[in-house]
């Protein structure tokens, strides 16, 4: 068993690689720091939209007729500090991901 958790209590800023992707278009920059994440490896054919410390943070992929998204941190306080959860981009981020996965955007 491998522990894939990466704790960053000092905070680490995500790097957005594709801010024009429909899943995150319109999400304000910069993104607030995260306090941790799960280290993942993006599969072939995956678009990594944001990284943290060089690791994928937000990735999306089309698979046949479906779509998937992976966000490697929390969606609520623990690894996402209050500054992230109260950030003006929090709601647009999650709304955009859901719309993209559902095929609306």
Secondary-structure topology with pairs:
Layout (H helix, E strand, L loop, with lengths): L4 E8 L2 E2 L17 E5 L8 E6 L2 E9 L2 E6 L10 H4 L4 H13 L3
Antiparallel strand pairs: 1-3, 2-4, 4-5, 5-6
In words, what does this structure look like?
The protein has 105 residues and is an alpha+beta fold. Helices cover 16% and strands 34% of the residues. The chain has 2 helices and 6 strands. It has a 4-stranded antiparallel beta sheet, with helices on one face. Strands 1-3 form a two-stranded antiparallel sheet. Strand 4 and strand 5 form a beta hairpin. It is globular and about 40 Å long. The mean pLDDT is 96.
In short:
The chain is of the alpha+beta class and 105 residues long. The chain is built from two helices and six strands, in the order ββββββαα. The model has no long low-confidence stretch (mean pLDDT 96).
What brief labels describe this structure?
alpha+beta; 4-stranded antiparallel β-sheet; 2 helices
Q: Helix fraction?
A: 10-25%
Structural category is alpha+beta
How are helices and strands ordered from N to C? EEEEEEHH
Can you tell me the overall shape?
A: globular
Total strands: the figure is 6
Radius of gyration: 13 Å
Output the number of helix runs: 2
